[in-house]
Amino acid sequence: MKKEGTVTSKGQLVIPAELRRKHGIRSGTRVRFEDTEGGIIVRPVSEDAVDRLYGILKGLGLPPDIERDPDRELE
Questions:
Q1: 0.70 exceeded by the pTM?
Q2: How far is the CA of 71 from the CAs of 55, 66, 67, in angstroms?
Q3: HEC profile for 14-33?
Q4: Is the pLDDT of residue 67 over 60?
C-alpha cells in the first residue's frame, strides 16, 4: 500500500488516517525514523517491547563489589 503525506512548514508530517489505524498510531505514539539508502522509514516504537523489558532485572541486586563501594570507578 502506498500513501502520501505532506510535511508542514514546521517539519511535521501527517500520517494518513488509514495507516494510523492499521498500525495503532495515535496521539502520543512514539515513532522511530530510520535513514536508509532508499529513503526514510518511519516505524511506531512498540510499547510492548519496552513493557517486556521493564523490571527484567528486578530482584537481582547489584554485584557485591558495587554494593560495598558504589563510588568506586569501574576499571
A1: no
A2: 24, 8, 9
A3: CCCHHHHHHHCCCCCCCEEE
A4: no
